[in-house]
């Protein structure tokens, strides 16, 4: 991950944790097209980097992201390309990059996280928040529309009733409400937020198999929207039948019986079963 960036900061530590941080603190990390392009590229690079096991999506400064940077009063859009299905709006470039990843992503959110600051984190596996965090799907109050595929992700996380309340009203709400409704997993004092995110990342690295995690997160997205469990049972059956020759399964059981930490040999993406029904779809969502 040697790419140089203008609006984000990227680093990988010795444990295999990639920290990708929004880095426009003087602008409250206002979201721009350049930032969306750089986030999409950095997330893709992290997913392809053999050193990386877990990604933390964070921000430098007091605020995670105060939404789209509209300081010049304009939007950078391409209506013709959008009509043709070619142009993708900026927040969706980030949320879909996370959705398509084989590695878990932990979002660490502090201060303002409104508009794009709320939508780009919805596809993360974990959302940790500082107690001072404030969220808001404020589009209706700006005369614009939800982005980042938030209309798909948000109801799956918090239910349709809460999603309607937050999106129709466009109101800003506190971290406690976000936690109570299931948008965030846990709350921390601002100074302890990233420490908690790194501790969670290390726990995942020490206790889980990379291939199992990659397959599991895709199963949840691809199968949970099916109208019946039939396809899920078919996928489950073939995966379980393959465990007899799966080195990760052997190591996981051996480590449990021997009361030691596992050292899973499987690697992502090389050891992900190629027959999975969504393998050729590049993570096309169900529903």
Description:
It contains 11 helices and 9 strands. The protein is α/β, with parallel strands linked by helices and 287 residues long. It folds into 2 domains: 8-205, 2-enoyl-CoA Hydratase, Chain A, domain 1; 208-282, Lyase 2-enoyl-coa Hydratase, Chain  A, domain 2 (Orthogonal Bundle). It has a 6-stranded mixed beta sheet, with helices on both faces. A 3-stranded mixed beta sheet has the order 5-7-8. β1 and β2 form a beta hairpin. α5 packs across α6 (160-169). It is globular, with a radius of gyration of 19 Å. It starts with 7 loop residues before the first strand and ends in a 30-residue tail after the last helix.
Keywords:
287 residues, alpha/beta, 2 domains, three-stranded mixed beta sheet, 9 strands
Roughly what percent helix?
25-40%
Spatial separation of the terminal alpha carbons: 34 Å
The residue ranges in which pLDDT falls below 50 over 5 or more consecutive positions are 282-287
Shape: globular
Question: What is the averaged pLDDT score?
Answer: 93
Quickly name the level 1 CATH class of the largest domain.
Alpha Beta
Structural class, please? Answer: alpha/beta
Q: What's the CATH topology label of the largest domain?
A: 2-enoyl-CoA Hydratase, Chain A, domain 1
H/I helix tally: 11
| Gyration radius, rounded | 19 Å
Record field, number of beta strands: 9
Domains, number: 2
- For the biggest β-sheet, the strand order reads 1-2-3-4-6-9
Strand content: 5-15%
How would a textbook summarize the main sheet? Answer: 6 strands, mixed
Query: In CATH terms, what is the architecture of the largest domain?
Result: Alpha-Beta Complex
- The CATH superfamily of the largest domain appears as 2-enoyl-CoA Hydratase, Chain A, domain 1
SSE pattern? EEHEHHEEHEEHHEHEHHHH
Enzyme class: lyase
Family: Belongs to the enoyl-CoA hydratase/isomerase family.
GO molecular function: 3-hydroxyacyl-CoA dehydratase activity
Organism: Gordonia terrae
């Amino acid at each position: 991950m040697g790419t140089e960036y203008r609006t984000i900061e990227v680093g990988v530590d010795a444990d295999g944790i990639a920290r990708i941080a929004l880095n426009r603190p003087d602008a409250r990390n206002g979201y721009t097209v350049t930032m969306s392009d750089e986030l999409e590229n950095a997330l893709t690079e992290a997913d392809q980097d053999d050193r990386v096991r877990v990604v933390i999506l964070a921000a430098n400064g007091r605020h995670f992201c105060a939404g789209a940077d509209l300081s010049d009063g304009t939007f950078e859009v391409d209506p013709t390309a959008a009509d043709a299905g070619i142009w993708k709006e900026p927040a969706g470039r980030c949320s879909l990059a996370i959705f398509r990843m084989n590695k878990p992503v932990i979002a660490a959110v502090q201060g303002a996280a409104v508009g794009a600051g709320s939508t780009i984190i919805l596809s993360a596996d974990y959302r940790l928040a500082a107690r001072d965090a404030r969220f808001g799907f404020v589009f209706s109050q700006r005369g614009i529309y939800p982005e980042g595929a938030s209309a798909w992700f948000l109801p799956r996380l918090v239910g349709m009733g809460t999603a309607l309340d937050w999106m129709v009203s466009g109101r800003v709400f506190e971290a406690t409400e976000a936690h109570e409704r299931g948008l965030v997993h846990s709350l921390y004092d601002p100074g302890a937020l990233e420490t908690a995110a790194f501790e969670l990342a290390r726990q995942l690295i020490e206790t889980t198999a990379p291939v199992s995690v990659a397959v599991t997160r895709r199963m949840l997205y691809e199968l949970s929207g099916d109208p019946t469990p039939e396809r899920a049972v078919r996928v489950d059956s073939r995966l379980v039948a393959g465990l007899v020759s799966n080195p990760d399964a052997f190591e996981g059981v051996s480590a449990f019986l021997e009361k030691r930490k596992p050292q899973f040999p499987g690697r992502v993406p090389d050891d992900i079963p190629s027959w999975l029904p969504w393998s050729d779809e590049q993570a096309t969502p169900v529903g």
